[in-house]
Structure formats: C-alpha cells, structure tokens
Amino acid sequence: MNAPIHRNDMIRTAAYLRCYPYDSWEMSFHHAALRRHAVQSGLPEPDCYLDNGRPSRGPLPQLRQLLLLVAAGVYQAVLVPGPFVFSLHDDVARDLIRRINADGCTVLELPRPHPQTLHQETTGLRESVPRQPPSQPDPAALSRPSTFGWAERLREATSSAVLPRSTRSLD
Predict the structure, then answer these.
(1) Is the same domain home to 47 and 81?
(2) Which of 17, 31, 151, 155 has the fewest CB atoms within 10 Å around its CB?
(3) pLDDT beyond 90 at 121
(4) Considering the domain boundaries, does residue 4 fall inside one?
C-alpha cells in the first residue's frame, strides 16, 4: 500500500465503494470524500465504481470490472475509504490490495479525520463549543398529582430542559 505514485498528467485514478445493505444515496458522502482526497493529493478526480447493496461475500461486478482495468494498466491509483470495502475479512482484503499493488497500482485509503475536523464537517461549526449538561426536570413536577395523562406530564417536565443533540456516527 506504500508504493510510490509518480505524479504526472498520465495518472488515472479510480475510487471503489461497496455498501450493504443498499444505500439510496449511493454513498454520496463517501464519494465526495474520496474526490476531495484525490484533489488534495494532487491526483485527478477518480472514476467511481460502486457495488451498492452487495455483501462482500457475494458477487461484486464493479470490483471485478475495476480489477480487470487495473490489470490492463488503465488505473495507477485506487482510492478507498478503507480495506473493508474489498471484504470484511482482513485476510481477503489484504490479498486484494496485494493483487492491485502487484498490477502496478497503488491503493490509497482516506486518512482518519481529526476529531475537530469531523466535528466541523458534521455540524458546520468551526470550533467545538462545550455543551452544557441538560437541565434536570423539576422532581416536584414529576411527583405532583395531576388530572392529565403521562404524555402531558412528561412534556411539562421536559419543556424547559435542554436536551442533548443526537449525532449519528459516520463510520
């Protein structure tokens, strides 16, 4: 994976993505990250090969096509988010990377983002602002007898509370 890349106008790059189960957005976030990494690395925008909705143990037609083109010398670099796109089994993924390297092509993985950068990309905020702990509901409000139902009591107890914002991991 550390084979040198000779930068010149003749380099052609590809990107490979695989997602299971099917992603209706066709991994657009990952594709954009691979394109951005290529440009930042001084490489041309990659041609993207996507096996969408395909498990790593099944047939992967786009990977097969990419491997044929790599063997034919069409591509000199393949960008991936990580070796897991080739297979969830480390030994199988390593073998595929070795095969690609043996054909004279370099596999480039996306660098792991710095936590500050990840925060900025996912929230749009430039600086991480420490969050205040959520205020606790008034215990008296929860124990007070009421004539209305549980949903209204919960809504009343939490209406002044600042609830933490939920974030979903991108990995």
Answers:
(1) yes
(2) 151
(3) no
(4) no
For position 52, which CATH number holds?
Answer: 3.40.50.1390
CA distance 86 to 101: 14
Q: Is 96 found in the same domain as 153? A: no
Residue 15: φ, ψ to 5°: -125, 140
- Domain contains 168: no
Look at residues 169, 60, 160 and name the one whose alpha carbon lies nearest to residue 118.
Answer: 169
Helix (H) or strand (E) holding 18, with range, is strand 13-19
Whether 3 is in a domain gets the answer no
Q: How far apart are CA 13 and CA 169, in angstroms?
A: 28
> What is the reported pTM?
0.61
Among left, alpha and beta (phi > 0; psi -120 to 50; other), residue 91 is: alpha
| Structural domain of 144 | 131-161
Q: Are strands 13-19 and 106-109 parallel, antiparallel or unpaired?
A: unpaired
Question: What's the CA gap between 122 and 170, in Å, rounded?
Answer: 9
pLDDT value, residue 25: 76
Q: How many domains does one find in the chain? A: 2
The pLDDT assigned to 100 comes to 97
Token pair listed for 76: 């000199």
- 17 φ, ψ to 5°? -130, 145
User: Averaged over 101-109, what is the pLDDT?
Assistant: 96
